[in-house]
Design brief:
mainly alpha, 2 domains, globular
């Protein structure tokens, strides 16, 4: 079996960079869609998004493998994955599936908030993310 553990620092760096690229591209495309710029949904931008997100997911699964993580027994990782599903649903509503402009805007803002919270969960390895410090100190 191939030992990929020595690649951990490079894979983690790639994962973090892809998280930033994915979030920035979503934020840009969402802003443009909210401004009525239909070209933000053109095929090249969608394909770029799919490519980044595929590499991001691949890097994430590779990190789980290297670290022997399990989303069931690692509550922060399970939370992050549930938030990822919510982010994808909200992002889809924001960019194309919501029936009204208001629903698109609300979905867009909610998706950005979920993205930021998901990042905080990853940073502190706790299901409450950065809210953990606030909750543990009584607000």
């Amino acid at each position: 079996m191939l030992d990929i553990a020595p690649w951990y620092p490079a894979i983690k760096l790639a994962h973090v960079g892809l998280v930033l690229a994915s979030g920035a591209l979503f934020a840009l495309r969402g802003t443009l869609v909210m401004a009525g710029q239909g070209w933000a949904m053109a095929r090249p931008w969608r394909m770029l998004s799919y490519g980044i997100d595929t590499l991001l997911l691949t890097a994430g699964v590779t990190l789980w493998t290297i670290l022997s993580l399990n989303p069931i027994t690692s509550p922060w990782l399970g939370t992050k994955l549930l938030l990822l599903v919510l982010y994808v649903v909200l992002g889809s509503l924001a960019l194309k599936r919501a029936p009204t402009r208001v629903t698109r805007r609300v979905s867009y803002v909610a998706a950005l908030m979920v993205y930021l919270f998901m990042a905080s969960v990853a940073l502190v390895h706790h299901p409450l993310g950065l809210l953990q410090a606030w909750v543990s100190h009584g607000g």
